[in-house]
Hints:
The protein has one domain: Rossmann fold (3-Layer(aba) Sandwich). The protein starts with a strand and ends with a helix. The strands form 2 sheets. It has an 8-stranded mixed beta sheet with strand order 2-3-5-4-7-8-9-10, sandwiched between helices. A two-stranded antiparallel ribbon has the order 1-6. By secondary structure, the chain is of the alpha/beta class. 48% of the residues are buried. The chain has helices at 65-71, 98-112, 124-135, 158-169, 175-181, 189-196, 206-214, 224-234, 256-262, 281-284, 286-298; strands at residues 3-4, 22-27, 33-41, 48-52, 75-79, 89-90, 117-122, 140-146, 241-246, 272-274. It is built from 11 helices and 10 strands.
Amino acid sequence: MNFLRTPDERFTGLADWPFAPHYLDIxxxxxxxxxxxxxDEGPRDGAVVLLLHxxxxxxxxxxxxxxxxxxxxxxxIAPDLIGFGRSDKPVERSDYTYERHVAWMxxxxxALDLHDITLFCQDWGGLIGLRMVAATPExxxxxxIANTGLPTGHGASEAFxxxxxxxxxxxxxxxxKIINAGSTRELTPEEIAAYDAPFPDATYKAGAxxxxxxxxxxxxxxxxxxxxxxxxxxxxxKKPVLTTFGDKDAVTAGGAQVFIERMxxxxxxxxxxxxxxxHFLQEDAPEQxxxxxxxxxxx
Length: 299
């Protein structure tokens, strides 16, 4: 598997990004290895809060979460999915599959041997993260599910279909501008540049370009059966589950209800709608979401 590695200097001096990089080599599932990057801040013996980003962002999405939660005594871990951030980026679109992403992240999680995890997942962080929960539910203490889903061959919103068309047809995929458009607040030029930093040119964007096509929203998509199998586990997951969705996100509007109805641990929880929260609600309400996470763990 051929891959690119973004030069380190691209990450020097990014706005609000003082965090030391950590790396782990994982099996590429194609006869080699890939290097996966993650942030690991806070006390080593603190309860683990795992923050999973989605498309087309990277761990920078959680730059305001990390200092708040680590100061509260949590060990905060925010990985970059393969193809994003400081993680390696396979160059062929065919190298990216839903099942490979799940396998890569499960391998990373097993290598770190994390337990008692509070998961916060959004967008593809949920599509992958919830599969991780289904694979090893014993590692997870509670879930916070935000602006995401776990589709099994249906459920695409009109807004998602518009995004899918745009992502496959726009001549240049401008990552920072996409994050800005998916947030209700206006990002600064420095923040937009930081989202662009992992991608020096289009050759680094195979994963970002391909991800939208992998969401299993038709019966013909790959991973429909695997997601159905995951749901059979999640429907018996009795540990606490909290949903928090942005009221300005057309892509996942109404998506919380399936988790509330189907997951036992979601019963009786104070599910939250983030007022003014767009698709990237981490950009729009980071302090509110950190308070929500802390309250959820302490409760």
